[in-house]
Amino acid sequence: MAVPIAVLDCDLLLYGRGHRTLDRFKLEDVTDEYLVSTYGFPRQFIYHLVDLLGASLSRPTQRSRAISPETQILAALGFYTSGSFQTRMGDAIGISQASMSRCVANVTEALVERASQFIHFPEDEATVQSLKDDFYGLAGMPGVLGVVDCTHVAIKAPNAEDLSYVNRKGLHSLNCLMVCDARGVLLSAETHWPGSLSDCTVLQRAALTRQFQTELHKNGWLLGDSSFFLQTWLMTPLHIPETPAEYRYNMAHSATHNVIERTFRTIRSRFRCLDGSKGTLQYSPEKSSHIILACCVLHNISLEHGLDVWSLPATGHMEQPEEEYEQMESMDSEACRIRQQLLLSHFS
């Protein structure tokens, strides 16, 4: 029985001597509406990704032909935005499901290599001040450099013995720590933490904490919910507000912090591979972490190009494990003093 060569020799399709490519699919032959509905993004955005990632996706080998960077990017976007290696999607661009899987791996690697280029805190004073001004405009909370929270993404069980990825719901997941600005642009994304770790533990161990303890605490702070400890650089809500000023502080805190929840929802809406609707990510924790980070990079690039993620429809997603909140009012006396001064100066 004849077996199609495309299924047997994926590497031959992906890379080739002389960079000759298999151009099965032409972007100019289809409408923007088709591209958005099938791959999640319009033509000009996809062209930009080709320019950005093309060199990384055109590595020469001793084989004879290669899949073009354009087709590799379409395959990856199709997976990120649908959550599955559907036969019809591979058929649409002329490659097998096995080749699609390899394309996703290549594009994911290329995006992760560029994560620090697109996900970072601003450094110059003017941009930092603009960041604070944008947050202040939301609900009157001063000095905010970002809002921080964690979200879980379901993954397949690494192995029967490894319980470190089992979260409070009894599901295997990665607990991803992220910070965003007032527009939903990600400023930090740590996507590799095991799902068994609480949000507070993740933050304690995170590179983000070392950043703020050593570099970024400059007359400003992050906002975090009650799952985190109050710190000099991290303002949390009051556990039991009593005075009008404390209620106003908590209301402003909640309205401002809500930006990160909206950001999580819109990332899941655009990148359906993360929302659990098509099942868990069928990869190792390391590869799953890279896929999540690649989607974060694409999220920021899309905002940079003016794509309105807030208007995306909401989708179902993995139920997030509930954190056990504790009263953390007196953990850091200096942090308590800073928050009290904030209450007196802006909410009294």
Automatic annotation (TrEMBL):
Query: What are its cofactors?
Result: a divalent metal cation
One of its Pfam families is DDE_Tnp_4
The protein's GO terms of the molecular function aspect are: hydrolase activity; metal ion binding; nuclease activity
GO CC terms for this protein? Answer: cytoplasm; nucleus
Q: Classify the main location.
A: cytoplasm
DDE Tnp4 domain ranges (all copies): 148-300
Q: Which residues form the signal peptide?
A: none
Cellular location(s): Cytoplasm; Nucleus
Which UniProt key words apply to this protein?
A: Cytoplasm, Hydrolase, Metal-binding, Nuclease, Nucleus
Q: Which InterPro entries match?
A: HARBI1-like, HARBI1_animal, HARBI1_dom
Summarizing the function annotation, the protein's role is: Transposase-derived protein that may have nuclease activity. Does not have transposase activity.
Q: Which family does it belong to?
A: Belongs to the HARBI1 family.
Q: What is this protein called?
A: Putative nuclease HARBI1
